[in-house]
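Lab notebook, bench 4. Continuing the backlog of folding jobs that were queued last week. Each job is logged with the same field layout so the records can be merged later without manual cleanup. Today's entry covers Protein unc-13 homolog isoform X2, a 959-residue chain. Filled in by technician R.K.

JOB TYPE: sequence-to-structure
TARGET: Protein unc-13 homolog isoform X2
LENGTH: 959
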Amino acid sequence: MVCSGLEIRLAEGKKKEKSPRFLAGLKNKREKRHSRSMSGSLAFDRNAVLIETFRTQMQISEAMDALIRRKLVRLASGKSFGQIDVAQIALGLLNGTMKSEFQNEKSYIQWKNRQANILEELLSAEQSVGTLFAKIRNFEEWDIKMSPSECRDVLFSIRNVALTLSSMPGNLGIQGETYYWSAGYPFNIRLYQKLLLGVFDILEDGRLIEEADEILKLIKSTWPLLGITQKLHDVLYGWVLFQQFVGTEEAMLLDYAVRKVRNILSPEDAGKKETKYLESLVCCTHQNGSEIRLNLVQSILWSISLWCDNKLLDYHWHFRQKPCLFKGVLSMALVAGNQKFDASGNMELMLDASDEIIASKVRMYAERSAEAACNRVTGAINAGSKVDKKHPLALLASELKSIAEKQLTVYHPVLRHWCAEAGVVSALKLHRFYGERLEPFLKNISCLSEDVKQVLAAAILLENYLLELHSSERVENGVHSPLMLDFERKIGEIARPIILDWVIAQHARILEWTGRAADLEDWEPLSHQQKQAASAVEVFRIIEETIDQFFELRLPVDITHLQALLSIIFHTLDAYLQKVVNQLVDNHNLYPPAPPLTRYKEMAFPSAKKKLVESVVLDNAVNKKLEALTTSKLCVRMNTLQYMQKKISTLEDGIRESWSAVRLFKNQTCPDVDSRWTSNGILEMCSESVDELFVATFDCIRDSAADAIRKTCELVGARVMFWDLREPFIFNLYHGGVEGARLETMLPQFDRVLNNVCALIDDTLRDIVVKSIFKASLEGYAWVLLDGGPSRAFSDFDVVMMEDDLNILKDLFVAEGEGLPRSLVEEEARFAHQILSLFSLRAESVIQLLMTSSEHSSIGLEAHKFGHRHLGDAHTLIRVLCHKKEREASKFLKLHYHLPASSVYDEAAVEDASVKSPLMADLIKRSASFRWSDKGSSSFRSLKKKIQEATSDFRHVGW
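JOB STATUS: finished
OUTPUT FIELD FOLLOWS
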């Protein structure tokens, strides 16, 4: 630098080092450097600041720097010629340098031997000076035995040889060229690389210092001395950047290196002389056991290319930790690796490699890396399958899927810029590799075992990724390759029947579990919050488990499989509902039998002491069912049915969602199936056919559940009124007289039963259950009025109290606006009010209504169905007359029907009296065809006679 005209000042004013550890001063060096640059005008100029920075980067101590500066200044002041070379600098540094100028003997010996080694390498062509270098390196001889004059003589002899060589002209006639450009180029190149390394931060190897560009300009002053040209600088700087990247994996350095290499290979001609000069810098390397002679540029590019190839031929492995480096390394490989060898083995750089050549190279990377990845995972499969307890083929498919996924998402987006077929190459390689191993397994499949499920599911998932990878370049155009469809179809064809067999096999198992759960059910709620029965929860758990297993197969399925699955669900839920419904009993089993007809007799009524018959005789099966059907258990049943309604909807939504996500099997043998292939290669079946399946399955189950809820709700009402409250309400209400047996005396029992039901029933069912109880209470009230037996007879005064009782009953269920709606209560109670209105009529009016009734008559005098009465019914009118405290009514019944008085009621004769007479039924039916009028008195007399005959069987039988 001194001889190039740069001013180098001696650092006399600098503080001496306080420690030999020169790196101790590097802390916060950027701040110091900035401070120095701001105050540089006061101490040193900009060049001095840069040289000081560079000294620190080169890790040269201040003491050594001061020594070198003094030697160089003295050398420059004594030189009269313009050009200087490295040999002269080394001789100038050795001349007059004493051991005492160094901190210790060791550093002196190292420094002196380095200068001798440099001179020996530069002057190696002259054998005569070989012994002189040995003297310099010999410490005892050079520094102890030889006198200063003898030392100067040795250096003078070397200097003469060096000057002779320096004066020799260059071989190529390049301006500034010296003998040492070619003869000493290995040393020059190593020294220049060392200088270039000074631009990297010594504390952070992967970073350039802030003054890097200025330092590079400063280093440019050494080009004439070291034989560096612009192209050679680009080569060496790119090489240094690349080496630094290899050591630090800093992506920024790789980007810089790629730019430099592109500059080297730019089509701009460097000049014939420079080209010849670069070609003269020959290096030797070995490839496949043979020696290859390359020029320096070729050697550097070849080295870079070999490193990149090594990484890219298995990029799945080398870039697994830092995939972000993949693009840069691939770019470098495609820039630096465009070489070819001629017939004689000489390398030739291809400055403008064709797109075809580049694509071929990328294709080779993709194929070789996929092959390496496949071979690598194969070795770990057997050990992995033992640990994970999975079939080796399932594990292999999973590993290959990970490779395909990484290829698709990480590597292919980079590779596609140079080779659009890279994805196809990788997909084909992975597909063939796995297909060869899967083929024998497919031939031996006979059932859907655990291994089969694992392997087929993993294989389908792998094929899905491979198909996407293979078609990645065609997705935008909607074009898809059928490359792997045959393979996938083969799996689908094998899986289709065994999946169906598996689904069918679940049918019997699930029905058995469902039946067991229903048979063991005690109809107790799960908890206070979960009021449904455990069996329904278990049934849905079994169904959901089966559904999960079906969709977790992850195999190609079709509408037949869906139909089989829905069929299982339908039969399972239907079987459970049937069990629930079959355990119920008909409501009529709870109603007391209608007692035989009697007429009121004022003097006889108080003496009626016999008790009303409580129930019909039930068979053992019905009686056993009734004992199990308590009100609380019936409420739990209703909660369970409501729970099923909710779960059915959830179940349907879940299956629909899962079905929309499955991979469907395309059945080409069924052309009537409306289908098309989506962009993901997934078949969309005709949605209308699928919807029909769902509707046919779940709507039917919903209807069955709703019907079961209705039946159970009606049974709850009948059970509460005609079983739980039959003693206080059915038997005791108005028993022996209205005033002493009013409704208000039994309201606490009503409240208790209703509160118990409301606590047990689900909130969503409360209104319909309460409504059912209310309707049953009205039926019970009507029974008391019409079928209450000989202990009940009502006067006009009683009707007023009975109206009040009916209003109390309605208010009880309205519950001050918190119960049933008032309008609903009024509507349901209308018939009871109408019956009371009949009792408020005079007997003559009721008799007239009876005589004018015809088509509205019921089926007979002895029996009727609850809920089927109406005011024009002969049965209703006769019952009103029987319970009316009025002489005219009793007289009419005795005269025309010969009914016995209530005083002769005998409990022992009830069974005989309750026997249905065919003649009585026939008479009542025939009475419906007559309208009694004054003109029809003869017909009435004939009918009366027949009625008298029909009642002769129980004329002397009391209520």
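OBSERVATION: The first strand starts at residue 282 and ends at 287.
SIGNED: R.K.
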